[in-house]
Design brief:
There is one protein chain. This protein is an all-alpha fold and about 120 residues long. It folds into two domains: about 10-85, no CATH class; about 85-118. Helices cover about 65% and strands about 0% of the residues. The chain has helices at about 10-25, 30-40, 45-55, 70-80, 90-115. It is elongated and about 80 Å long.
Length: about 120
């Protein structure tokens, strides 16, 4: 064991969850549906996918005060590093919001021009 580093013993279920997280990070899951997502480059690592890969319930790591906070913290740290989500739905939603804002700006500008011309 390296000096200055305390190794915490992992329980059986916690070890399964950490192993599942490592497989997902490496891109080699055992679950067929997750393997398909890896091939399509659409795999997101979150509490749901880690629990599914480990064959456990999501509630073990899916909320604050869960049974395995160290696993949850590792997943959250990974999610924070991953950067912005750029799925089609997210990009589409942002563009729709931007279009709505631009339409409002145009309406306000047109009413101001009409007021000046009167």
């Amino acid at each position: 064991m390296p000096k200055g580093r305390l190794e915490i013993v992992k329980t059986g279920i916690e070890k399964e969850l950490f192993d599942a997280l490592e497989r997902l990070k490496a891109g080699i899951p055992k679950q067929p549906d997750l393997q398909k997502k890896v091939r399509l480059k659409r795999l997101r690592i979150n509490a749901t996918t880690v629990a599914r890969e480990a064959g456990r319930a999501r509630t073990l790591i899916g909320h604050d005060g869960c049974a395995y906070p160290r696993v949850r913290a590792a997943i959250k740290a990974l999610e924070d590093r991953s950067g912005p989500v750029t799925s089609f739905e997210d990009v589409n939603r942002k563009l729709r919001e931007e279009n709505a804002d631009l339409r409002k700006t145009i309406k306000v500008s047109m009413s101001q021009v009409a007021a000046v011309l009167r």
